[in-house]
Amino acid sequence: MTTTAGGPSLPQERRLVTEVPGPKSRELHERRTAAVASGVGSTLPVYVAAAGGGVIVDVDGNSFIDLASGIAVTSVGNSAPEVVERVTEQVAAFTHTCFMVAPYDGYVEVCEQLADLTPGDHAKKAALFNSGAEAVENAVKIARVHTGRDAVVVVDHAYHGRTNLTMAMTAKNMPYKEGFGPFAGEVYRAPVSYPFRDGLTGAEAAARTIDVIDKQVGASNVAAIVIEPVLGEGGFIVPAPGYLPALVEYANANGIVFVADEIQSGMCRTGTWFASEHEGWLPDLTTVAKGVAGGLPLAAVVGRAEIMDSVHVGGLGGTYGGNPVACAAALGAIQTMKVLDLNARALGIGELLKRRLAAMAVTFPAIGDVRGQGAMIAVEIVEPGTTTPDPVTAARLSAGCHQEGVLTLTCGTYGNVLRFLPPLVASRELLHEAMDVLEDVAAALVAAG
Ligand code: PLZ
Q1: What is the residue range of 254's domain?
Q2: Ligand 1 site-directed mutation target among 154, 192, 261, 263, most atoms within 8 Å of CB
Q3: How far is the CA of 373 from the centre of ligand 1 (A)?
Q4: What is the reported pLDDT for 3?
Q5: Which of 321, 339, 357 is the last residue of a domain?
Q6: Which of 264, 265, 292, 376 should be mutated for ligand 1, with most atoms under 8 A from CB?
Q7: Which residues pair with 411 in a beta bridge?
Q8: How does pLDDT run across 270-310, given as a tens digit for each residue?
Q9: Do 272 and 156 share a structural domain?
Q10: Ligand 1 atom 3 nearest Cα
């Protein structure tokens, strides 16, 4: 294996020196095709040599502007110095004892930090896991024990993971669920607030959601309502103002555990530590993963101490959950977020991207909606003048950006949303350049008819 130094000292530039993908990437792709199961896809099959700040450099020497952050993970940038330093120290000290066998302070400190950073000054506790899906599963386990109830309510366009329970909770069939059933029971889906498509106020949309829960499930049967404050894979949908506070009020009034799945929206991504802060409501439990550990696998459930503590001793755990190296990475990432004030940077990024995208929408009417919070921004691509989804144009825009050295992602139930999730340390120059590229790609599509 060959490695090149990454991190923020990598030249922060877009640079294409071969076609995309280049010859070395194509060679690696052949090996991959023979060795890696075909069910695992890749958005852009260029093989990575190094990454840092706002760029990813491939094995052919091409440098891409990164608008993906490994799906909202490397918010502090790849190989952030504070993460590298703490991980290096930890790897040299010890790599694993299993917290359930012999504990260590890094795990405790991550739980303390998460209790401190999540909203509300009530008593909180946390437990650590490996992946987002695992955190969601554990939030449901905890809510069921706490309430003595079975039902879990999720919403349209939700994404919660790929394990058996979380597949049942995820809305979209293809590619996440197709052929993988039967799915776990006692998961009920209610409509959500999707301002671009339903035109409802937050109060109206909440009344619709609550009506479905009351009539089809019964509030007294519901252990948990699980929802993403900004729906991520489902299309970067920001519910109308008032929607989430109304659901929280309903949950509180009915003894239902309200779980905010902040796996994608948390840890500075939307310009606050957690997206729930935008409207000032308090979740009972929050699931955390992705951005929390600067690229190492770590996840958490954090929330009200009395709910977290309702589980019997030994009821929560797993071999690797809260691995010491991942905890060291998280402490380095959180430190970086504080020192660089990445919440402020996320707000600045959001403002820049929204301004550029709104200007683009004037000459490119396929952009039906520009939305998002902080550095979690997207455009919904439609047939001009309608709300009819146009996934083909969204895919063309994204592929066009890839060819020009900008790594973009799509999402959405209809596959027609182009989303932007840059590392929060990306420079304004790089972000402007990425928007220039997108503008050119869109203009070329218009010119081609
Ligand atoms: N909850 C809100 O966004 C992960 C998934 C990409 P894991 N989203 C990216 C893919 O195609 O697998 C996610 C999320 C929210 C839960 C999860 C699941 O987190 O760490 O991927 O299990």
Answers
A1: 83-339
A2: 263
A3: 18
A4: 64
A5: 339
A6: 264
A7: 417
A8: 999 999 999 999 999 999 999 999 999 999 999 999 999 99
A9: yes
A10: 264
Q: Closest ligand 1 atom to the C-alpha of 131? A: 20
Residues 46 and 102 in one domain: no
Residue 2 has pLDDT above 70, yes or no: no
Two tokens at 124? 């909180």
User: What's the distance, CA 402 to chain centroid?
Assistant: 21
Q: Is residue 269 a contact partner of residue 291, using CB atoms and an 8 Å limit?
A: yes
- Cα angle at 443 between 395 and 439, to 5 degrees? 75
298 C-alpha to center of ligand 1: Å?
12
With a 6 A CB cut-off, is 233 part of the ligand 1 pocket? yes
Q: Is residue 295 part of a domain?
A: yes
pLDDT, residue 170, reads 98
Give me the sheet containing 48-52, strands edge to edge.
48-52, 55-58, 63-66, 406-407
Ligand 1 contact, 136 CB (< 6 A): yes
Beta bridge mates, 65: 55, 406
Do 265 and 405 sit in the same domain of this protein? no
The protein residue whose alpha carbon is closest to atom 21 in ligand 1 is 132
Residue of the CA atom closest to atom 11 of ligand 1: 176
| CATH code: domain of residue 356 | 3.90.1150.10
Q: Is residue 398 part of a domain?
A: yes
**Residue 255 is assigned to a structural domain of this protein:** yes
Distance 261 CA to ligand 1 centre (A): 10
Q: How many independent structural domains does the chain possess?
A: 2
> 232 CB less than 6 Å from ligand 1?
yes
Question: pLDDT tens for residues 113-147?
Answer: 999 999 999 999 999 999 999 999 999 999 999 99
What's the start-to-end Cα distance of the chain, in Å? 45
Global pTM value: 0.98
Taking the C-alpha atoms of residue 152 and residue 137, their distance in angstroms, rounded to an integer, is 11
